[in-house]
Amino acid sequence: xxxxxxxxxxxxxxxxxxxxxxxxxxxxxxxxxxxxxxxxxxxxxxxxxxxxxxxxxxxxxxxxxxxxxxxxxxxxxxxxxxxxxxxxxxxxxxxxxxxxxxx
Amino acid sequence: xxxxxxxxxxxxxxxxxxxxxxxxxxxxxxxxxxxxxxxxxxxxxxxxxxxxxxxxxxxxxxxxxxxxxxxxxxxxxxxxxxxxxxxxxxxxxxxxxxxxxxxxxxxxxxxxxxxxxxxxxxxxxxxxxxxxxxxxxxxxxxxxxxxxxxxxxxxxxxxxxxxxxxxxxxxxxxxxxxxxxxxxxxxxxxxxxxxxxxxxxxxxxxxxxxxxxxxxxxxxxxxxxxxxxxxxxxxxxxxxxxxxxxxxxxxxxxxxxxxxxxxxxxxxxxxxxxxxxxxxxxxxxxxxxxxxxxxxxxxxxxxxxxxxxxxxxxxxxxxxxxxxxxxxxxxxxxxxxxxxxxxxxxxxxxxxxxxxxxxxxxxxxxxxxxxxxxxxxxxxxxxxxxxxxxxxxxxxxxxxxxxxxxxxxxxxxxxxxxxxxxxxxxxxxxxxxxxxxxxxxxxxxxxxxx
Lengths: 103, 450
Known about the structure:
Number of strands of chain A: 0
Radius of gyration of chain A: 15 Å
Largest sheet of chain A: none
Strand order of the largest sheet of chain B: 2-8-7-6-5-3-4
Shape of chain B: globular
Low-confidence stretches of chain A: 1-11
Radius of gyration of chain B: 24 Å
Distance between the termini of chain A: 23 Å
Strand content of chain B: 5-15%
Number of helices of chain B: 15
Oligomer: heterodimer
């Protein structure tokens, strides 16, 4: 399971797929931030960002398609697991309670 | 002779508490009883913040992707995978076989060579006792090391009682096996050599490839307990010439209660089965395969294969950060085990002049362990540290830090700061530390009783 492409430097990608990539990236980050568990939340956010950064230079449309499908699958997994985490939420960890953070 | 105040201070620093005035003998007895009660188990209060998890060698949290793969098999696809007559059985079997392929792909094996078990302990038992008993007519000798997991050592002990000869090879001070010694201990009647790939207490990585070559040339089977290694370092059972390999689910972000045993088919390794019954798993391990757990193990293996490079880079970076931070601030800290031939995520540090249990108690915001979970019930220092020749007092002051896929820089920094602070505080209370600061050589002191 890996993630798609961050398009801000890729010039020759079709504008529709560029929009798709940006919207998927935003949705993945938004859903990942909802994990109640500190470790899962930080991991998902970090992995999405790094995954997109890794594939920044991909412009072959077939490869892009594969990556985008994987990203959509990952989004579905994250949504389900966030819901489960919320049903079984528990106390925060020591590093979270220390100060008000966004993460 | 030590004065009462020095005694009190000494025991006080060792227990992290101020002890009342007692004679030396009385304090010694109550100290050991007190140590047993020191880290009392209790449940967290409602608003109490959870400690950071830094004990990845004991077990790992399940990756969300693994749980997601398992749930359908817990909720809807609940059939017995060995039922041949209906869709419930077929879909369950298909999940199980897919998982088998995922496990096999991680270690470059054939799916037919993977047997699902209840964990690495069962796999180890099966491998060692199974091979020994099958070939016992002609071969009665088994070789293992002194730093193996308790289940391996205990299986060997049981075999000794059955009449086998076991050689427990010592390890060098860096934790690695001496290949010359291994070569010399192989006899014509040796059936099996068992060496773990990565040690769970000190993180040392054994040269399995060289050991495999040696064993293959002398016609001896090689079993390796790869519970801590699978999914973390690249493994190729054909390249390494390994004949049997134990895999544990809950060490690679999979579910607890499942593991696997790799049993080579070419050249064939025969095992006497320990669990008899309906002939499942090639007759080697009868019993219904727990499909959800097997699917979880398979998913964990697939995720591990995809994430191996990313995780390894990140864990190495975090481990370096932790060790450098700690060693820069406090002196007399020793890393147990070879600094190069190791898995970076398992860091065993000995803090001189500080007692391990009291440091653990002081670091109550961080989930750590000193020595492995299976030996922490007793007060004895870990046998692994003893085997690498650590000084008795250094063995008592060792802490194992585990770093894994979900560890953050924040957690590492918090752990390092807390550790530095507590070690300094405990050392300030310790008269031994005072004496060392004054330049006294502790080894030259003749301690006497009152």
